[in-house]
Write a structure and sequence with these properties.
Mean pLDDT: 87
Order of helices and strands: HHHEEHHHE
Number of strands: 3
Number of helices: 6
Number of domains: 1
Structural class: mainly alpha
Oligomer: single chain
Strand order of the largest sheet: 2-1-3
Radius of gyration: 21 Å
Length: 145
């Protein structure tokens, strides 16, 4: 799976969508108090998802790293195009339908981001212990007193 950035991206997007607040998803779907789809929630939803996925993934275009707001704009465009029935299924009671809708939305977001950008795992920084700190390695030479 490490060599399949699209699968990693889809997994991260699905998790990020699943972590959105339930009231936000219900408002987005039109299942809240007003019974109307609150499309003004889309920018904050997209920003949250973009922030969550860029923790462990980097997006590049022509060798340059893409800024977070560009990624969020593409996520916004996908969320804007989510049909009413799919949005209601995502906010619904049936867990199977809810998961299917979330996975379908995650697949659309993944497809759009993979078409436009190169997806790479974010390199983790190497932690070097400070001098005088034991890091668990056995010293090969004997201690001198």
């Amino acid at each position: 799976m490490q060599n399949q950035p699209a699968k990693i991206l889809e997994l991260h997007v699905g998790i990020a969508l699943g972590c959105l607040r339930r009231t936000t998803v219900r408002g987005f779907a039109g299942c809240g108090q007003s019974r109307r789809r609150d499309l003004h929630l889309i920018p904050s939803m997209a920003a949250t998802v973009a922030r969550d996925i860029t923790v462990s993934l980097t997006f590049q275009k022509d060798g340059a790293t893409v800024i977070l707001t560009r990624v969020a704009r593409h996520i916004e465009a996908v969320l804007q195009d989510v049909p009413d029935a799919q949005a209601r299924a995502w906010a619904g009671i049936d867990a199977t339908a809810r998961d299917d809708a979330r996975h379908a939305i995650a697949a659309c977001i993944t497809r759009r981001l993979c078409e436009r950008y190169e997806v790479l795992p974010t390199p983790r920084p190497t932690i070097v212990p400070a001098s005088g700190v034991w890091c668990g390695l056995q010293d090969t030479r004997p201690e001198e007193h």
